[in-house]
Amino acid sequence: MKLSTSALIALVGAASSASAFTGLSGSTANAKTVLSTADRMSGSKGTGEGWLAEPAAPVNSDASLQKTVEEALKGATFQKRLSLLGSTGSIGTQTLDIVDACPDNFVVDALSAGGNAELMAEQVAKYQPKVVSMSTPEAAKEVADRLKASGYSGPMPEILHGPEGIDAVASVDSADTVVTGIVGAAGLQPTISAIKLGKDIALANKETLISGGPVILPLVKEHGINMLPADSEHSAIFQCLQGVPEGGLRRVILTASGGAFRDFSKDELFKMCEEDPRAVQAKATTHPNWDMGAKITLDSATMMNKGLEVIEAHYLFGASYDDIDVVIHPQSIVHSMVETMDTSCLAQLGWADMRLPLVYSVSWPHRLWMPYKPLDLAEIGSLTFTKPDHEKYPCIRLAYEAGRVGGTMTAVLNAANEAANEMFREDVGLGFLDIPKLIEGAMEAHKADLKIDDVQLDDILSCDAWAREYVAKASAEVANGG
Predict the structure, then answer these.
(1) What is the C-alpha separation between 345 and 331, in angstroms, rounded?
(2) Which end of the chain, N or C, is less surrounded by CB atoms within 10 Å?
(3) Cα separation, 185 vs 418, whole angstroms
């Protein structure tokens, strides 16, 4: 296997702003300049500045390390009962693949979906959940009708619909783990309901922490649940942090595929946006590596997905924004890395298969045998890493800015992005480069009403609604040549 020079630089962390060993002279290496073990803090500065003392994931503390060891020593003969939000989507169907591969370890107690009644009926017949929810009463009725028409003879689940139905699926008594596979801010309320009932969260919904971080973190602490990342990048970081002691984390390095326009220069992309917006629209909704939903695929093209992941990494692992970096890695084999205080870099590698992070989120800290193709580094040949161009991808900059501001600003960033993303895909007349402009406009307009302290769920939901309305109005003006 051959690593390029840039790959080696990224993997050893030599390109970071943190210094490598500099060598202290005898006159400076004394008690005044060297921190004791008890005083050492996380981060590149070793001060813990900007870091969260109690992040959402069970990492970076003596208590979480002890919890991990205790869970691991229980052995891999466990059985978990799952509630799955978004069962007919990409996350949902791949989670059910894991259930199929490990039937002794997982039982499905509840399922929710949007409008795909045909697939939901098939899932009900196979997994026999207790509770099912669809987005509309019509879809819920169709599920019931399909089950009856198929001659289904198993126990009929309670079939619900709407937000109340999703909440019921997240809250079903018997489930101990909720997989949040629905996209957008719609996942926030059911996740809160599950946490309050003491259920672990396999977190595949970025917006739960991006929008709701100020509300979610206190609830995680209060109810003592485990928030376990189910997306590839944060799962990679989480896996790398297993066994890293309190104060041992220096830096988080998120990898990005680069999305649909990774092989375009900034000038080439901007020229294409001006001369052939239709081609840009088609390409922006096709991912080069992953089979994902339309919204996430477009977020990858703008690289807002990586900006959102920066904010999520802050809440999950406690790292300050100064200690979270992004590198573009086109092969999508290194799913992310951490740098420890001694400047060692730990990376998690695997094929571009969402089932790998999903299985760890529902089996942590155990390692289950899975019938997947093993990684072959010789087959890959080379791994490359480059820095993202923040002028080409302004959404990354916007996410860092929103995260550093904190409070309700990240909720506005997320909602504005969801709205702009949807309108671009619906072809209302927005250009690709209008997406970050609309988001930045919403952030600027929100400064007058920004709330930093004592943020409540109602504040987040209000800001979410406001940002969507702002983008809708602004989009209409852009589409009309305003």
Answers:
(1) 19
(2) C
(3) 9
How many whole angstroms separate alpha carbon 278 and alpha carbon 113? 31
Are 193 and 457 in contact by the 8 Å Cβ rule? The answer is: no
Instruction: Give CA–CA dist 52/449, Å, rounded.
Output: 25
CA 374, 378, 380, 384 dihedral sign is positive
Of 140, 239, 272, 209, the closest CA to residue 414 belongs to: 209
* CA–CA distances in Å: residue 342 to residues 18, 19, 244, 258: 11, 10, 12, 29
Residue whose structure tokens are 């059911």: 190
Return d(Cα 49, Cα 428) in angstroms, integer: 44
Distance CA 230, CA 237 (A): 11
Instruction: List residues bridging with 158 in a β-sheet.
Output: 131
Q: Which two tokens stand for residue 223?
A: 């109810």
Q: Which pTM value belongs to this model?
A: 0.88
Amino acid letter, residue 33:
T
Q: Give the CA radius of gyration of the chain.
A: 23
Measured in degrees and rounded to the nearest 5, phi and psi for residue 6 equal -65, -30
What φ, ψ does residue 17 adopt, rounded to 5°?
-75, -20
Of 8, 75, 25, nearest in space to 383 by CA: 8
Report the alpha-carbon distance of residue 482 to residue 386 in Å, rounded: 37
Cβ contact 98:355 at 8 Å: yes
| Ramachandran quadrant class, 83 (left: phi over 0; alpha: psi -120 to 50; beta: rest) | beta
| 164 close to 137: Cβ distance less than 8 angstroms | no
**pLDDT digits over 370-397, tens only?**
999 999 999 999 999 999 999 999 999 9
Tokens found for residue 104: 């002794």
Among candidate residues 303, 355, 307, the one with its CA nearest the CA of residue 206? 307
CA dihedral 31, 34, 40, 43 (to 10 degrees): 160
User: CB-hemisphere CA count at 13 Å for 67?
Assistant: 13
Dump the DSSP string for 415-448: HHHHHHHHHHHTTSS--TTHHHHHHHHHHHHHGG
pLDDT in tens, 23-40: 333 333 333 333 344 455
Peptide bond between residue 365 and the one before it cis (omega within 30 degrees of 0):
yes
pLDDT mean across residues, the chain: 90
